[in-house]
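Newbie here. two chains, one complex. Structure please?
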Amino acid sequence: MLKVISLDAALDLVLAGVKTWARVQSVPLGCAGGRVLAQDAVAGEDLPAFSRSMVDGYAVLASDTFGASAAQPPLLRLAGEVKMGERAAFSLSPGECAAVWTGGELPQGADAMVMLEDAEALGGGWIAIESPSAPGRNIVFRGDDAKAGETVAPAGKRLSARDIGALAALGYSEVSVLSETRVCVLSTGDELIDCAEAPAGAQIRDCNGPMLTAACGLAGAKASFCGRVPDDEDTLLGAMRRHAAECELLLLSGGSSAGAKDAAARCLDRLGEVFFHGIAVKPGKPTLAGRIGETLVVGLPGHPAAAYMMFHALVYPALAALQGQKLQEHKVSARLSTAAPSNHGREELVAVRLEGDRAVPIAAKSGLVVPLARADGYVRIPRDTEGLMKDALVDVILF
Amino acid sequence: MLKVISLDAALDLVLAGVKTWARVQSVPLGCAGGRVLAQDAVAGEDLPAFSRSMVDGYAVLASDTFGASAAQPPLLRLAGEVKMGERAAFSLSPGECAAVWTGGELPQGADAMVMLEDAEALGGGWIAIESPSAPGRNIVFRGDDAKAGETVAPAGKRLSARDIGALAALGYSEVSVLSETRVCVLSTGDELIDCAEAPAGAQIRDCNGPMLTAACGLAGAKASFCGRVPDDEDTLLGAMRRHAAECELLLLSGGSSAGAKDAAARCLDRLGEVFFHGIAVKPGKPTLAGRIGETLVVGLPGHPAAAYMMFHALVYPALAALQGQKLQEHKVSARLSTAAPSNHGREELVAVRLEGDRAVPIAAKSGLVVPLARADGYVRIPRDTEGLMKDALVDVILF
């Protein structure tokens, strides 16, 4: 029998086993979306570097426009034009204005813009201002966006498209980011064959290998499926040793039941350290974790639904932690469509489909994979209950 | 002046302009996570192909175990062992049992499993059964997972890791998926330079190009930044014609204000069709959309915050629709930390930062990009209001 711990305790041990990886690389800004910044991004200069107009119109001294209306427009002398893409080479005195296009620099002295549609060029260099403007109106002042020396995005931030825009504006063409987490996925079991093969005898196609590899990839990791290992302890030992050296997370599936052919736990114990072997949860009991050197190792059950549930509960948070992130669990509230009895002394994870505001438990024997693919998430039933009643309000953790 | 339409009407026109693309490709199953299935995936066979055990233990006739206890265990004759990975070559009669490992086939006649820990091997081929088992207990029957001919994942489904697992179990090694949406991003404006360059005069670094390219990439599209085009109508016309032929979505930024240098709308009108030019929204008024052939074209404002808001409101849904998907908007409820006046007759989008359950409007002049990078989402203020009061309960649409 396995000496089991709770799912929450298992998660704590997995996260405590995560090393913050110092693997850093420099990537072109255009490839940095979704990556995690390895060092603070600091503004090297004021942004914008000069005060500029946000509209097409006339730069003015706001005080010259107070009280302006179409009926009584003050007339300002056109002192010049600041062409798009050019700096302002002159300054304004009271009674003067300057044509400035969107993005253009305001001449010295100007402190507001009047939009083109609120002015009329009378000819002879005179502009009639038909609407008042307030100081700062339609202007971005120097440094409004960022001041030189200001941290624009801190180390550890996952870069959004908007961050990429901000860094581009500040002149970053490359950024230093955490390297993608490398994951090796190994399937174990004599009975497994590749999904392209036709099963002979009692062989079954390995679905955990592709499923777990895809799940890591969708979580942003660089995951490689490293093949199927037969139930031979020496072979497994060699494969675990070799692949642990190539990655930050080694994922095994199968080979961790307490049955006669269990070997992963013994191999892990010989190569490194076992954090735990066995979780008081259904499905997912024969799950183990530990480390080989600084590589985190998680052994998932062979049954696909159990493997995926434990992946979701333990490995997703670990993948986030390996990138210095804290996973945001997505939950919705719903009412159980049927009672979910649970009285076996283990926490239970019940896969459900959402239908409106109802959570419908799916017949998810832990050996099945197709019903799991149709589920939207799962409900946790604590170990100290007799289960949940029909219509109970539950949190559904979304896949 | 632009003839403006509402943001909702603009979204309807953009989505109506999306063609359902018939571009389909076959990819290895391992690369199909997150892709959209192009045709129904159907089970070609019963899964599992035989009834199998979910535990290590003894296959029995359940009726032989009724009333069993440790004190009064029925004795069953061990008829044989089904080794892992082998088919059962014998059948059970009443009074008999067979050793079966997890995943092994049940012999004909057996209808339940007794776990190893609920039985004791007495020697001489006799097994004491210490706990009763019910028919079907610890067994997956043939076809429980999927029946031959059943649709396992319908065309149009975005493949999750669990779908990949289900398809692997059913022997799919390649799947037919929609090709990734190709997006070309063009920045327009004489004043723009590459983010790696140092601005001279009134030049500014192009941040919309990298930002919009990254945003499309994070949304799963295959986005290419195709460079900056100066404010020259013939040059723009050539670039739009050339790049529209290479993609399903052509994104422009800048060049769509009603100012003197506006050219994108005229080019679009010459090359194809303009759906609309101008939206009654702040920021984002000078936004346009149309098509060139079957390629959707969206022209975003030059101001980065305005460009990103309109990207979020119009282009994200369009990217989803181009993959046959309906975008799920993520919203949270919050209370405004300060009043947000808005009485200019246009719908207003106010970027906010979330602090607990409070939405704090950020100073987001539409020319700024750094404050935008720090925002968590935005609030829509309808055009027919005077704005929102402090403490108003609002839906924050998350970026």
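Moderator note: The CA atoms of residues 15 and 204 of chain A lie 33 Å apart. Chain A is about 20% helix and 30% strand. Thread marked as resolved.
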